């Protein structure tokens, strides 16, 4: 039993408010800096109250960063990665839970161990595969002595190269596996008695039941893929066509190396532009996100 007292409630609310202030303070500073002109932003100390240049700075940042193009690219990549992760995670978890084959738990743990191998660790072999996606198959054919010459399949400077290497997810597989394990066996037996095969059971029973898990995973993966910087920077050389929004931020503030002073007010406005889509997705899917992580209702 948890004892509730006015003093404990006060302390709890003070801790929560303090954490909220610490969380929102950097965002507030970005917003304030984006609303002032160049000279005001460079004052020491900078004012902590918004100015009246926000619309002007946003327009300059949008034009300077070519955001009408890169925002579309980021949206395509984020949606492609999110959908790919959900599909791959659901299918892999379905296979591990509902199909009884040898080494299935070993397969699961191999997938789970990849949580310790982020993209930055495997960036070199991933780039090598993206540069020629059929090279591993060519190596296998050569190893067994088959004289098969596969064509080169270059994924650099393509949406496929930006999306496909990122769609595997151990986190999503784990979340779906844990959810599928809680589905009653009686439901599975009832579906079999109704003549439902594996595909129909997966599409018409499991997927509707896992909507909240899907929304939670979609929220996490959309924000993660939208904020990707290293992989797009590596795989994209045609910045005019395939650059993403996070890549474009580095061009907003050229800095002294380019012979120009840092235009912090425009840079902060650009940060607001790039920040808006993941914030909107998080707000819109917040209820589903929380339910997908903590709900036990089936």
Describe this structure in words.
With 298 residues, this protein is mostly helical. The protein has one domain (25-294): MetI-like (MetI-like fold), CATH 1.10.3720. The chain is built from 17 helices and no strands. Helix 12 crosses helix 17 (286-294). It is flat, with a radius of gyration of 24 Å. The mean pLDDT is 84.
Beta-strand share of residues: under 5%
Q: Give the name of the CATH superfamily.
A: MetI-like
Radius of gyration: 24 Å
Q: What gross morphology would you assign?
A: flat
Number of helices: 17
- What is the total domain count? 1
Highest-level CATH class = Mainly Alpha
Mean pLDDT: 84
Largest sheet: none
> Which range best describes the helical content: under 10%, 10-25%, 25-40%, 40-55%, 55-70% or over 70%?
55-70%
Distance between the termini: 27 Å
List the helices and strands and how they pair.
Blueprint: H1 6-34, H2 38-41, H3 54-64, H4 67-98, H5 104-113, H6 123-131, H7 135-143, H8 159-163, H9 170-181, H10 185-193, H11 198-209, H12 211-226, H13 230-235, H14 239-242, H15 245-252, H16 264-284, H17 286-294
Helix pairs in contact: 1-16, 3-16, 4-9, 4-12, 5-9, 12-16, 12-17, 15-16
